[in-house]
Amino acid sequence: METIGMEEDVVVIGGGAGGLNAALILARARRRVLVVDRGNPRNAPAGQVHGFVSRDGTPPGELLAVGRAEVERYGGRIVPDEVRAVRRIDFGCGETNPGNGFEVELSDRTVRTRRVIAATGLRDALPDIPELRERWARDVLHCPYCHGWEVRDQPLGVLGWQPMAVHQALLVRQLSDDVVFFAEAIDDEDRAKLLARGVRILDGEVTGLVIHDDELRGVRLADGTMVARSALFVPPRFVPNDASLSGLGCEREDNGRIRVDASGRTSVSGVWAVGNLVEPGALVVTSAAAGAKAALAVNMDLVEDDLGERERV
């Protein structure tokens, strides 16, 4: 495998809103920045991005295309590839290679860099219900803030397949007077909350969706009952895409996610993690802001590194 010489100040893993915003700020600070993006954004199935002031309603692909062009305008580089591993190495001394850094293994080459920002997001794990994945981000939805306005005042459902579903149903009720909670298991306290909020509760297992003319028309229960609904909210289980960092030994929270400080700095010196990778509920605008905060911290960290090297020389 080819190893490219130490030419990058920062490698950003992931080219979503968080990664691109970090790269933009670092490139404008005249840092050598490489973004590695495997090109499968989590929000690709969605028609539009919402909650991002001045960009509300923009298709996700268009938002990313504009972001990539902005990064490249300032000299940042973007490559379509996948990071297989990140390893710490010692570059030795010298003004061009101060201190320790990292090797970032891609599919057919290895890149050396002084700092790493991981913005690799997460995967949505969904229940095994026929056609549910195919309807994802269309009329099977995960976020009231991202998709709620578009289905307001319609007959809505919330799939109660995990504890987060109760919280989501309380939010969805703000969108419509007709909300059904499909309860696989629910305790008395949560049941009382939903009823007080005006959410109708149906006990029973959901086994399928009713689709007609490529639109969701209802939810089918195990006993054969069909409940007419035009959209179904399904809170996914979040699975972080953090395999590329697994060899670094980053400390983790009790929930298994990588532990970071307010700037996204991990317990491993020189490595930051931002966006949905460490904050599953982050909106697109939240991830972009996290990328900005990390970029500011990384740039200052590099400045201090340069000063320390000059003092040693």
UniProtKB/TrEMBL annotation:
The FAD/NAD(P)-binding domain sits at 9-286
Record's keyword terms, sorted: Flavoprotein, Oxidoreductase
Instruction: Write down the chemical reaction(s) this protein catalyses.
Output: [thioredoxin]-dithiol + NADP(+) = [thioredoxin]-disulfide + NADPH + H(+)
Is Lipid metabolism set as a keyword in this record? no
Tell me which Pfam families the record gives: Pyr_redox_2
KW Flavoprotein (keyword) present: yes
PANTHER family membership: THIOREDOXIN REDUCTASE 1-RELATED-RELATED (PTHR48105)
The entry's protein name is: NAD(P)/FAD-dependent oxidoreductase
Organism, per UniProt? Nocardiopsis rhodophaea
